[in-house]
């Protein structure tokens, strides 16, 4: 009778450990999903601001249609990249950031744009959004790191694969793309 009781106690403890590990991994996965949703909110905000900015400067920048088209194309690529995964999304967003930088650089040559209140407001909102994207990216990457550590360490490593937990990709940005575009309007 004593071996049966010991066996049941061991099984209950083992089941408790497995349940605890599973619940911990689920919580970490949900945190990663939540962090990604925060990035998506900021990216959508940026995507919504870009057409307004392009339309605001279009009349002033008649000779810069190539630059405006590149920004529009980069935005379209970024919007469609979301379905291809985190790595593709990061690459498309980094390309968009680069084209926005070139747009801001070209805008420096147009004094009327520097004085346009609508353009100033859009640039300020875009810069604020870029800062929020950078913060959200840092939070997401920290959350992914915690999740990946959780599924890659013992004893969770034993159960993670069985329960379908797989590593997540970081939202990487090259050093030059992680900086906020500099906007000087004076």
Per DSSP, the total helix count is: 6
Order of helices and strands: HHHHHH
Architecture, according to CATH? Answer: Up-down Bundle
Per the CATH scheme, the topology name is de novo design (two linked rop proteins)
Give a description of the structure:
There is one protein chain. This protein is mostly helical and 186 residues long. The chain has a single domain, classed as de novo design (two linked rop proteins) (Up-down Bundle). 76% of the residues lie in helices and 0% in strands. The protein has 6 helices and no strands. The model has no long low-confidence stretch (mean pLDDT 88).
Keywords:
186 residues; mainly alpha; de novo design (two linked rop proteins); 6 helices
SSE blueprint and pairings:
Blueprint: H1 2-58, H2 65-81, H3 86-107, H4 111-115, H5 117-152, H6 156-160
Task: Write a brief caption for the model.
With 186 residues, this protein is mainly α.
């Amino acid at each position: 009778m004593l071996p049966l009781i010991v066996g049941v106690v061991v099984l209950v403890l083992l089941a408790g450990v497995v349940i605890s590990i599973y619940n911990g991994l689920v919580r970490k996965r949900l945190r990663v999903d939540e962090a990604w949703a925060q990035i998506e909110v900021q990216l959508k905000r940026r995507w919504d601001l870009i057409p307004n900015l392009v339309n605001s400067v279009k009349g002033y920048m008649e000779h810069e249609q190539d630059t405006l088209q590149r920004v529009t194309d980069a935005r379209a690529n970024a919007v469609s990249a979301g379905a291809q995964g985190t790595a593709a999304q990061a690459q498309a967003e980094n390309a968009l950031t680069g084209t926005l930088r070139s747009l801001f650089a070209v805008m420096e040559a147009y004094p009327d744009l520097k004085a346009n209140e609508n353009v100033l407001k859009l640039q300020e909102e875009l810069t604020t959004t870029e800062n929020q994207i950078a913060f959200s990216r840092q939070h997401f990457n920290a959350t992914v790191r915690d999740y990946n550590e959780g599924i890659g360490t013992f004893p969770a490593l034993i159960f993670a694969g069985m329960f379908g937990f797989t590593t997540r990709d970081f939202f990487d940005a090259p050093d030059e793309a992680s900086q906020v575009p500099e906007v000087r309007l004076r």
